[in-house]
Amino acid sequence: MRKYLIYILFLSFSWSVSGCSEDDIKLYSDKDYILFTKYIQDSTSFSFLAYPNVEQAEYKLEVKLIGLPSDKDREYKISVMKDYTDTPDGTYILPEKFVMEAGQVVDTCVIVFKKTPELSSVARRLTLCLEETEDFALGQADRLVAIINVSNIIFKPDWWNSTVVKTWLGEYSDMKYELFIKINDGKVNVNVNDANEIRTCTLKLKNYLKQMAENDQTVYEKDGTEMKVAYIGG
């Protein structure tokens, strides 16, 4: 279902936007181009499990321009795609305005999510899109939409892919992911393209499991097998 949603959203923006790549964008255009730093297929899981003692928490979404920084502040626009969003109104707060500050090429949009009882049983989806403004044209179509899955439950994140299974963390389980979050100080998302980041996070879990086993407190999965990671380095 998630892949189907991404496919539909990508087609929609491919039809409505020229879809230029970064290499195709000319700096002498009347406008600079704006896009999200993440691709549409890289949807994000935001879990309140990382923030157990709060009723609301912030999620940071990055946008960047393709072009030259300006000597003045410029506004860009992010809208909620209601047809592809099931997060109730009032449970998220967007900034009143979005500004790419003078001299900058990247801006961080801070979204506030509110914890609700239903998030403990079901994940909700917030789908955002960039819109053209007087200051900015739209960049490549596959970086104009951001999908954020919000919950207070454990579920397999998109980044825990086959490479993570084979090279780093091993087979996924809810127990392993919950322990991963705890050991990594509430971290729920990992940039798997950053080898140093995924290695550091994996080693923290590996060393914890090793220490527990050495203290005769081996951590087991629900099926009774010892919890392990795939990474063999140290």
From TrEMBL:
<protein>
    <submittedName>
        <fullName>DUF4843 domain-containing protein</fullName>
    </submittedName>
</protein>
<dbReference type="InterPro" id="IPR032299">
    <property type="entry name" value="DUF4843"/>
</dbReference>
<dbReference type="Pfam" id="PF16132">
    <property type="entry name" value="DUF4843"/>
</dbReference>
